[in-house]
Specification:
heterodimer; A: alpha+beta; Ubiquitin-like (UB roll); five-stranded mixed beta sheet; B: about 130 residues; Cytidine Deaminase, domain 2; about 25% helix
Amino acid sequence: MAIEVRIPTILRTYTDGAKQVEGTGSTLGELLADLDSKHGGLRDRLVDDGGLRRFVNVYLNDEDVRFLAGLDTPVKDGDTVTVLPAVAGGAS
Amino acid sequence: MLTIPRDLYDKIVAHARADHPDEACGVLAGPAGRDRPERFIPMTNAARSPTFYEFDSTEQFQVWKEMDDRDEEPVVIYHSHTATEAYPSRTDISYANEPGAHYVLVSTRDADQAEFRSYRILDGQVTEEPVTVE
């Protein structure tokens, strides 16, 4: 079972420069744990004590997983998970 | 150094003025690896705030996917400050996650004269760069 995970530029230091890696799991949470076992430290950039980090966007196919079930979102073979750091900032 | 066509410069300033007093934000896409901004992509500020901006996550996905399909990258990420100078704040620096992009700040604090400045932000370090409008 393989799920394709697209990695943004800023996190490719964890994947030896790869823009795409593969992982397994039946939920997003399991998938991230699997990725972390191969690319140590990656999970910490995506998840904190409260769940998915506030300014990191994770998508299952075309949907932001915040609108699905977050870390409990089911994933399956053939799915594509995309990670994009949020673009944000401001004067304050 | 940021080299930017006049029409894209004008579009960014117009966008910032139109959204004032909320912060405006957006992207200039260009062909991957060429460091030339070519395509203007104004983004919705999901925060709709005079002191904070954030790209809507679904819109960001669509724009990033389209850039990928077109073999483009985000050459410029711009946003406006509506009451302060056109210089990156601590928040701007901590959320600067596109290492290859030029970060453009526009200030609309003055009704007549917009300030337009560009920066590289890498590993928490801000370096201002000259802007050439062509």
